[in-house]
Design goal:
Blueprint: H1 5-11, E1 19-30, E2 33-44, E3 48-52, H2 59-66, E4 74-80, E5 86-88, H3 94-99, E6 102-105, H4 117-122, H5 133-137, H6 141-160, H7 176-188, E7 194-198, H8 206-222, E8 226-230, H9 234-240, E9 243-248, E10 251-256, H10 258-263, H11 265-272
The structure holds adenosine-5'-triphosphate (ATP).
Adenosine-5'-triphosphate (ATP) binds at residues 30, 33, 35, 53, 55-61.
């Protein structure tokens, strides 16, 4: 029996129209510390959404809960798949979450210095291979075909990033801004529905940060995906996000547009200084 779209929705957890991801009442404790406490927020389709908060507010823990690296003590992480079906990610393991189109890029760049930028893009793409490890090892035709398609896709991503000229250059010795772009490129290679970025502007100079702002806008438009980010650089967050969730001590202080967050008294007190 084939299920109609309506039937799939009926059996799925409920998610508001236009919402891609919702963390619903998520909580987690480590020992006696409640790192995240009954937190609810949602990210819409094709939205850039920021999470801000002082050190230890629980931001990274939220990312770890979304990607199922940590299992929440309670709550749900609802996600709309490409076919419209809504699932609770809590029932999945991290690699399965990645296959659903949620990709995370880390604050620490993890590139292989002695590989070209193109090859660095392809590292990690193996998770999306359809062919078996066996056929990849034996380099059977199907595996070779798949590798060729991925390589072409990597070249498209490099072109999008403005790095075609550097495709064959080693990662070693590249400017930090270029390495950061390759990190982002890895996420793009996997047809993401949601890209999760941990402090993408950390360590970038002003020009590189401006460049990244343009790139995030272009990703949203050309790849038609959403971006969820943690960032301490307030100017960058305010420039780039449609909505922001401000956290403090594991709890939500406020959600709103950059203007609303900037003007929110509790947020001013917590992060921006009372002035
Ligand atoms: N695996 C863990 N074991 C024990 N405590 C943890 C663990 N992960 C996070 N915590 C605690 O949870 C709290 C929230 O940490 P988290 O790293 O999420 O904060 P953050 O907002 O990302 O901070 P920062 O901006 O400094 O990265 C902190 O008190 C931290 O020590």
């Amino acid at each position: 029996m084939t299920l109609t779209k309506e039937a799939v929705h009926k059996e799925s957890p409920d998610l508001k129209e236009g919402v891609l991801l919702e963390c619903r009442d998520i909580s987690i404790s480590f020992g006696g510390i409640r790192a995240v406490s009954d937190l609810t927020f949602d990210v819409r389709e094709n939205e850039v959404y920021g999470i801000i908060g002082p050190n230890g507010a629980g931001k990274t823990t939220v990312f770890n809960i979304i990607t199922q690296f940590y299992k929440a003590d309670s709550g749900a992480v609802l996600f709309r798949e490409a076919n419209g079906n809504v699932i609770d990610l809590v029932s999945l393991k991290t690699p399965q979450v990645v296959r659903k189109g949620l990709v995370r890029s880390f604050q620490n760049i993890e590139l292989i210095r002695d590989l070209s930028l193109a090859d660095n893009l392809l590292v990690g793409a193996h998770i999306h291979f359809e062919t078996s490890v066996f056929s990849q090892m034996l380099r059977l035709p199907a595996a070779r075909r798949e590798e060729r398609v991925l390589r072409e896709k990597a070249m498209q991503v490099l072109s999008f990033l403005g790095l075609t000229d550097r495709a064959d250059q080693l990662a070693a010795g590249q400017p930090y801004g270029v390495l950061k772009k390759i990190e982002l490129g890895r996420a793009l290679l996997s047809d993401p529905r949601l890209i999760i970025l941990d402090e993408p502007a950390a360590g970038l100079n002003d020009t590189e940060t401006e460049d990244l702002t343009g790139l995030v806008h272009a990703i949203k438009k050309d790849y038609n995906c959403s971006i969820l980010l943690i960032e301490h650089d307030m100017r960058f967050v305010m420039d780039i996000c449609q909505r922001i969730c401000a956290m403090s001590f594991g709890k939500k202080l406020a959600v709103g547009t950059p203007e609303e967050i900037r003007a929110h008294p509790a947020v001013q007190e917590a992060y921006l200084g009372e002035e």
